[in-house]
Amino acid sequence: MLSKKMQKMLNDQINMELYSAYIYWSISAYFHSMNLDGFARWMRLQGQEEMTHAAKIFDHVLERDGTVTLAQVKGPPTSWKSPLAACQAALKHEQMNSKRFNTLMDAALSEKDHASSTFLQWFVDEQVEEEAQTSALVENVRMVKDSGGALFMLDRELGARQLGPEEGA
Ligand code: FEO
Q1: I need a surface site. Which of 14, 16, 79, 113 has the fewest CB within 10 A?
Q2: What is the mean pLDDT of residues 74-100?
């Protein structure tokens, strides 16, 4: 059984994962409007992953006899001043989300809620990967600078991204 505190934090995190999906899809739409379809695909798939994160937490709350309370998801930004700024926004968001999972893990450990801490470990590890890949993306876009040719090559590379097995590839 989940404590009320853990239940509230996990429900808030479901909302944050859905908001993460909104941000990525909004960035995807932004790239689509710039004809950067590879970037758009990469962000769209990232948003899809965020939906699976929300679903995982949803399932955990229910499995623990908790109550899922879905709240309104706020609207994300809809435009950025450059591809670099959009990728930097994604990285900043992931860094914030990593902090949230650390706080969630701290709460689970302090309550000796071992089922939640084992569950949350997957997210702590996932955040390391997500921050690393988004940080690599930011660096790649930074290196491209104003070279249209290099941006085109990077766009093609990003367009090759596939979903992992958990996301339904
Ligand atoms: Fe679900 Fe990108 O964190």
Answers
A1: 79
A2: 97
